[in-house]
């Protein structure tokens, strides 16, 4: 019996699901469950190992290909919108335990090794558009914009050459490898990633969500958090609005607590019982 985590990822999707699943995989590793992280592309898995600290990963193009590597009775945690009702029923029959993010585990799950309360944050303001920009939206936004007094944290899937195109419009460009340190140390964060905003909140930062047209967001969660929102197609307008929000930044509501330890205990118990029966 093996434990798998499947995260939808890719150059048009980003790494938010990968980060969430990696945080769970690390807890399972600490408990000796030897989980395997499945990502839709090799780069996401390599990133999770090199930057996020997971031990095992494998590339799986789509969720429906998981049975090619899994065995009946294995355990699966998955973070994707790919599964139809029929597929979910099949997965329930195939797996001993099945957990879906955000239904069974909230999407606010983060890596507590990295994203905890931080004092004396060194970066006053930071813009993180997201890990992906498949439609070159940020390049279009920066047209006719003067240089902005804010650093840009580059995305993992930015196209080759985009950094040179963007560099004149920001005070600094931070490499994507510095993601964890940058989110930790940003006092005010403007981001197109709701996941990054949640990580920022956990670190004591004050994030503002930049609502991208090519992304779907959990509006109920945004409302619960009282998270401020910016939506525009102009970089100059986005930064101007960001500055205005900072002046009267609202009180962010606390994230609802979720104890994943009960799920971890259940998974580890099943794995341990299986080991005893097969040894």
TrEMBL record:
This is Glycosyltransferase. It comes from the Bacteria. It comes from Halarcobacter ebronensis.
